[in-house]
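Input (Putative dehydrogenase):
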Amino acid sequence: MDLNIGIIGFGMRAGLWKHVHRPGAGSQVTMVCDVSERGRADAATNLPGAVVTAELDDVLTAGLDAVLVLTPDDQHAPVVMATLDAGIPTFCEKPLATTVEDCDALLERAYKTGTKLYVGHNMRHMPVVVQMRKLIDAGAIGEVKAVWCRHFVGTGGDFYFKDWHADRKHSTGLLLQKGAHDIDVIHLLAGGYTDRVSAMGALSVYGDITDRRDHSDERMWDWYSADNWPPTEQKGLNPVVDVEDVSMVNMTLDNGVMASYEQCHFTPDYWRNYTVIGTAGRLENFGDGPGDEIRVWNRRHDGVAKPDAVEEIQDAEGGHGGADPRLIAEFLDFVRTGTKTTTSPLAARNSVAVGCLATESIRGDGSAMQIPRLDDDLVAYFEAGQ
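Output:
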């Protein structure tokens, strides 16, 4: 019998419905909730058999088997708190919340209610990440001691500085909203969580652009254009722009691994570069999509050298290199069977904590910030897979 699934928020991540709505094959979207007329209209067009509503209470009382919360980030916490209280297994798009306090409250509520909670960190299912993790687990570079990530966000001006992302009261900052993905991957590749973090950053380019307008009645693809170059010539930025467009973060993990993360929103190219260094070599991805390469050096070389091994990054059908359908499939299996998942609410909370504390470090004096510890019972509960 199909699971009856609800979707709350039918905006930029609403495309996930295609992987959920498979009537007769295990699941179907039977209800959509969105506070905007456009979101409700899009839902009615794409899912004509679903009930479409503007009222969250309709979702909470509909007897659904699970829900996907795909709202803007600052609405994750109140909506997920309500679905957990209603006992509905919940998929929350990343980041889990925009503050550490809200994340911790959600974990506590999931623990006390026993309601299943899943966070949509789809990069854990991206081939580039899966393949790097397998190489590490196979001992290709020995024991991991350092992880570096450089994130070149070539579309930053269009993706993150023309709507609510640019306003810290809605997003906290892009080390949280955008960086939560990469911080989570760093933790995955390193096999630990950040204990202390310090950071530097600035609003180096987009703060000087005075051409601003309200895009609240639009979505990203309405205004996006590859012709918006160079970054200093951007037009129509959000009326409020007060988040950093370049950031540099240093992390010490609880297992002794040292890590760094750099994020820049005005580069000409758009990709992530991870370098992982172990006691017997290093690996690095050159490109992060299908056909790109993961290169491994595990012999001693003098100067620049060709890699000792090369692994091509695989392709798969679906968004984010095939990660999105895998993500939804894992969530639905979790709802049905409670099987332990690749993603983790605990890991999601820890990526938010790093993003928040790093942002606090930037806006302070750059001092190292201690990541607050969770209650041992909470940690054990989520490590066990709920």
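Residues 124-323 form a domain with the Dihydrodipicolinate Reductase; domain 2 fold (CATH 3.30.360.10).
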